[in-house]
Write a structure and sequence with these properties.
Elements: H1 4-16, H2 18-52, E1 60-65, E2 83-84, H3 85-92, E3 99-114, E4 117-126, H4 130-133, E5 136-141, H5 146-150, E6 155-159, H6 160-166, E7 176-179, E8 182-192, E9 201-205, H7 206-212, E10 218-219, E11 221-226, H8 232-249, E12 260-264, H9 265-308, H10 310-318, H11 323-356, H12 372-398, H13 402-407
Parallel strand pairs: 4-9, 6-8
Antiparallel strand pairs: 1-11, 1-12, 2-10, 3-4, 3-7, 3-11, 5-8, 6-9, 7-8
Length: about 400
C-alpha cells in the first residue's frame, strides 16, 4: 500500500493512458452524481409534503356537527345537531391514552375596535392547548392559561395580521381591544404557518366567549390531537370510534354522513406515507441503478485494462514478480481511479443541489438535499466495487503462465 515504486508506476500508467482513465472514472463520477441529485430531489419532495401537513398538528382529528339527512329513532331528518362542553368531555374521555392535546372551540365573527381602527374578525373561544393544535408560535407575550379559563378572564391573544391592522405602533401586549362592546386585554401575539387568514384570528378563553353569548355552552368544533405513538391504522380506527360513539350520543343514524363529520389527518397521512414509500422506492431503484451502472462500467474497463496488460504481466512474472504483487498493483490502480472519480461525482452532485436550492419549489420540491451518511455509504459501496472490479480480472491474469501471457496478441 505504501510502496513508493508502486505509486509511481500507477500514476505513470494513468498519465500514459489518459483517455482510458477518464472513461473509467467518468462512469463512477456520473453514477454518484445522478445518485446524489435523485436522492436530493426525493428529499425535496418529502420536505414539501411535510411542510404541507405542518400547518396544523399532523395528528389532528376535527369533529363538527351539522343537519341530519336521515330520520332516526323517531327523530326527523333536517335536524340541527349541536355540541356542548359535556360532549367535548365525553369525546376526550373515550380513550384518554390515545389523546395527546385537545381543545373545544366556539367561534363567532365580531366587530373589534382599537382607537380609530376597527374590523370584523373571527373570535375563537378555546383552551390553552389550541396553541399546540394550531402549531402557533408566540411573537410577543403569552398564550392562554388554565387560570384565564377558570376566572373567565377578558384576555385575548391576537394574530400577527390583527396587530398590523389595528395596533400599528409599539407592542400590543397590555393594550385593550373592544370586542363587541366588551373590553379585552391583549396578552400575546402569535404567528401561524396557515398564512394571513389564520393570523387574522383572535383567541379568547372559551369560558369567557360562551359567557358573552348569554351563558351558552355551545361548542362549534372539537379538536383532538391523537397520541403520536399511534400508527396511522390505529389513529384511523380511533377516529372512527369517536364518530360512531358521538353519533350514538346525538341520536344520529350510522349512515348519516352530515349530522356528525370527522376529519382525521391520519387518513391523509396514510395516503402520504404510501405515496412517499412508492416515491422513495422509485428514486432508490433509479439511484441504485446508476450506481450499478458505474460499477459495471469500471468492471468492464478493468477487464480491458488487464487484458491490455497481459504481456506486461507475463514479463513481470518471468522476472520473478509474485502473483500477489501483480494483483495488488492492478487493484490499487482501480481503487485510486474510483476514489478520485467518486470525489468529483460527490462534489458535482452537492454543488448541483446547492444551485437548485428552492428554485423548484413551484414543482413541489423544497430544499433538496442528501445526508452525508447516504453519500458516504454510496461512496464506500463504489470503492468496494472498484476494489472487486480490479481484483477479479487481476487475480485471473496472475494465474496465467508467463509463456502464455507473452504469446497473447
Amino acid at each position: 500500500m505504501f510502496d513508493l515504486d508502486r505509486w509511481q508506476e500507477i500514476f505513470s500508467s494513468i498519465r500514459s493512458n489518459v483517455l482510458r482513465t477518464v472513461l473509467s472514472g467518468f462512469t463512477v463520477a456520473l453514477g454518484l452524481f445522478i445518485f446524489i441529485v435523485l436522492f436530493g430531489i426525493g428529499t425535496g419532495l418529502q420536505n414539501a409534503f411535510t411542510q404541507g401537513f405542518a400547518r396544523d398538528a399532523q395528528n389532528l382529528i376535527s369533529i363538527v356537527t351539522g343537519k341530519t339527512t336521515v330520520a332516526y329513532k323517531g327523530l326527523q331528518s333536517d335536524r340541527v345537531v349541536t355540541m356542548n362542553n359535556d360532549d367535548y368531555d365525553f369525546l376526550v374521555n373515550i380513550d384518554k391514552k390515545k389523546v395527546g392535546s385537545s381543545t373545544p372551540r366556539y367561534t363567532a365573527n365580531l366587530l373589534v375596535k382599537y382607537g380609530k381602527e376597527s374590523g370584523n374578525y373571527q373570535i375563537n373561544g378555546a383552551q390553552p392547548e389550541e396553541q399546540i393544535i394550531e402549531n402557533r408560535k408566540m411573537l410577543d407575550g403569552r398564550y392562554l392559561t388554565p387560570t384565564d379559563l377558570e376566572r373567565k378572564q377578558n384576555v385575548a391573544v391576537i394574530g400577527r395580521m390583527v396587530q398590523r391592522d389595528l395596533i400599528k405602533n409599539g407592542s400590543p401586549v397590555g393594550k385593550e381591544l373592544n370586542i363587541n362592546g366588551t373590553i379585552f386585554k391583549v396578552v400575546g401575539v402569535f404567528s401561524d404557518d396557515g398564512g394571513d387568514w389564520d393570523e387574522r384570528h383572535i383567541t379568547v378563553p372559551i369560558t369567557t366567549l360562551q359567557q358573552m353569548k348569554k351563558g351558552s355552552d355551545t361548542v362549534s368544533i372539537n379538536y383532538i390531537a391523537y397520541n403520536d405513538k399511534l400508527t396511522p391504522d390505529q389513529a384511523i380506527k380511533y377516529g372512527d370510534e369517536i364518530k360512531e360513539k358521538l353519533k350514538a350520543r346525538k341520536n344520529v343514524a350510522p349512515s348519516d354522513e352530515n349530522g356528525v363529520r370527522v376529519w382525521n389527518n391520519a387518513k391523509n397521512m396514510e395516503d402520504t406515507f404510501a405515496f412517499m414509500a412508492v416515491l422513495t422506492g422509485i428514486v432508490g431503484f433509479i439511484g441504485l441503478g446508476t450506481l450499478a451502472a458505474g460499477i459495471i462500467g469500471i468492471s468492464n474497463i478493468m477487464v480491458y485494462i488487464v487484458k491490455e496488460r497481459t504481456k506486461e504481466i507475463g514479463v513481470r512474472k518471468a522476472i520473478g514478480a509474485k502473483p500477489r504483487s501483480i494483483v495488488a498493483l492492478i487493484v490499487q490502480e482501480s481503487v485510486v481511479i474510483t476514489v478520485i472519480s467518486g470525489f468529483v461525482g460527490v462534489g458535482l452532485g452537492v454543488l448541483a443541489l446547492h444551485l437548485i436550492g428552492d428554485s423548484l419549489e413551484e414543482y413541489f420540491i423544497k430544499d433538496p438535499s442528501v445526508g452525508w451518511g447516504s453519500i458516504l455509504m454510496a461512496f464506500v459501496a463504489l470503492i468496494f466495487s472498484g476494489l472487486i472490479a480490479g481484483f477479479v480480472p487481476a487475480y485471473r491474469a496472475s494465474k496465467i503462465k508467463p509463456i502464455e501471457a507473452l504469446r497473447t496478441e
